[in-house]
Specification:
Blueprint: H1 3-11, E1 21-23, E2 31-32, E3 38-48, H2 59-76, E4 80-90, H3 95-111, E5 115-123, E6 127-137, E7 152-156, H4 161-166, H5 174-181, H6 187-192, E8 199-203, H7 207-217, E9 221-225, H8 233-242, H9 248-255, E10 261-266, H10 271-281, E11 285-292, E12 296-300, H11 304-311
Parallel strand pairs: 4-5, 9-12
Antiparallel strand pairs: 1-2, 3-6, 4-6, 7-10, 7-11, 8-10, 9-11
Helix pairs in contact: 2-3
Bound molecules: magnesium ion (MG).
Length: 320
């Protein structure tokens, strides 16, 4: 199959069909209509074999994840996702890989009303790059930099599941592996938080590192209560079943990463509205700490070893 045939077969109608696409796949570039009262939000993220996934990873999961990680960034801005570009580099073209990959990508795209409007296909070591656009009312997007002393600190969902799943806890850890392979970006929650949150970040590299990024951008200090971290029942049960060292589940929750939950700050007066919003969406939101004047993030834990280990942590893609 040549590139034109591949596009016709797999990509031409992938995802949502949107009325604001003047010209989609097939020309030199796409033409898209941005409403005058909206700002365009752009993000991109790559999944590279060997760095972000192992050879033999599920193609359907890769299709889902390639879009989910970008949707999570759009969610953290409080924006509504709209259009995506896909750059796909593959060692060889096989229906056995492309069909499930496109199915995973298309299902999530339709769920979030995202149209595929263009991209690029090339031969080489497997890597998948999605560029995702979203729309947000002008001047209203959530940023990392808006937190104020006195705000409360919240996180959505549960933490540490994806890391436990990635590390392959055991055969009984299906729900944890599911959380790694099929993360749920909190897109509706992010848009609801436009009215309520002062700052927001999505948890991709680990709560501890990502909260510090948000606080640094806001020129604030913060405190995290380890006892309040939301750990899922599958994670707690894996901890019991596998005889992990003390606080291993908590450690994964703080530093495991790839949770794709939203971590956000909000003034105390918004507490009731935040929990009402979460309940209306069927989402879980937990208050895990607060924001103060100063710099840095302190961790409240009865375990001094955990605090010392965190001090020494700091995720950096380029420092392995
Ligand atoms: Mg992010």
């Amino acid at each position: 199959m040549d590139e034109t045939q591949l596009i016709e077969r797999y990509f031409r109608t992938l995802g949502a069909q949107r009325a604001d696409v003047s010209l989609g796949i097939g020309d030199d570039a796409a033409l898209l209509r941005v409403p005058v009262d909206r700002e365009l939000v752009l993000t991109t993220d790559a999944l590279v074999e060997g760095a972000h996934f192992m050879p033999g990873a599920s193609a359907r999961s890769l299709g889902h994840r390639a879009l989910a990680v970008n949707l999570s960034d759009i969610a953290a801005m409080g924006a509504a996702p709209s259009w995506m570009l896909l750059s796909l580099v593959m060692p060889e073209v096989t229906d056995g890989w492309l069909a499930p990959f496109c199915a995973g990508l298309a299902a999530l795209a339709k769920d979030h009303d995202v149209a595929l409007v263009g991209g690029n296909l090339a031969r080489g070591p497997l890597s998948i790059t999605v560029e995702l656009a979203g729309l947000v009312p002008c001047g209203r997007a959530l940023r990392r930099s808006g937190a104020h002393p006195g705000d409360a600190l919240y996180v959505s969902g549960t933490l540490g599941d994806a890391a436990a799943g990635r590390l392959g806890a055991d055969e009984a850890s299906g729900p944890l592996l599911e959380r790694f392979e099929y993360p749920t970006p909190r897109v509706a929650l992010g848009q609801g938080l436009l009215e309520l949150a002062s700052a927001c970040i999505d948890v991709s590299d680990g709560l501890y590192v990502d909260v510090r990024r948000m606080l640094a951008a806001s020129n604030c200090a913060g405190r995290l209560d380890v006892e309040r971290l939301p750990l899922s029942e599958p994670l707690r049960s894996a901890e019991r079943r596998l005889g992990w060292p003390a606080q291993h589940g908590v450690r994964l929750a703080l530093t495991g990463g790839e949770d794709y939950e939203l971590c956000f700050c909000a003034p105390p007066a918004h507490e009731r509205a935040i929990f009402a919003l979460a309940a209306s969406l069927g989402e879980r939101v937990t208050c895990i700490g607060d924001v103060s004047e100063g710099t840095g993030l302190s961790v409240n834990s009865s375990n001094p070893e955990l605090c010392a280990a965190l001090e020494a942590t700091g995720f950096d893609h380029f420092r392995r």
